[in-house]
Design a protein that fits this description.
This protein is mainly alpha-helical. Helix content is about 30%, strand content about 0%.
Length: about 170
């Protein structure tokens, strides 16, 4: 059932797996999680049994022992075992700002003036009102606009159009 995998690539993948596991046991970096330990064991077992750790050829080349994603994960585990941090955009490198920007505070040079006394509240602004909206009763206030006033509802006027689709 095994695929024809290059023996050198198979030995190289096994050597990398075993070296990452050995470095993790030495404890140079943070300890590996259970998932990472299980990953190393299962991939090594599959390479020894089948010659390759993946079956789907869309995930890697046919003569490789590890798929592309397995190779990336093995590299991350190896870096973690060596005590080196992750690389990429989310870690120390990438687009992250390395230092804080140099910003001058404008308010540092100025003396803070004493607060001014609070101003008196101004009366409401005058509003434009139509003469027709005013009523003789000053407490009633302006009338609501016509669109808001209740309109009497009439039943809709329906028309029968002869000669339509049914042609009656």
């Amino acid at each position: 059932m095994s695929r024809d995998v290059d023996e050198r690539k198979k030995r190289k993948a096994l050597r990398k797996l075993r070296k990452a596991a050995m470095l993790a046991e030495q404890g140079l970096g943070p300890p590996l999680s259970d998932w990472e330990k299980q990953f190393l064991e299962e991939v090594e077992e599959r390479i020894e049994k089948f010659g390759s750790a993946f079956h789907d050829l869309e995930k890697g080349q046919s003569d490789e022992a590890l798929s592309a994603l397995q190779h990336v994960k093995l590299r991350e585990i190896d870096k973690k075992a060596r005590g080196k941090g992750k690389s990429g955009f989310g870690s120390k490198g990438g687009f992250k700002r390395k230092t804080s920007p140099r910003v001058r505070q404008i308010d540092e040079d100025l003396e803070v003036p004493a607060p001014e006394p609070a101003a008196k509240p101004r009366p409401n602004k005058p509003q434009l009102v139509r003469a027709s909206d005013l009523s003789s009763d000053p407490e009633a206030g302006p009338k609501p606009p016509i669109s808001v006033q209740a309109k009497p509802k009439k039943p809709p006027q329906l028309k029968v159009i002869r000669g339509g689709a049914g042609k009656t």
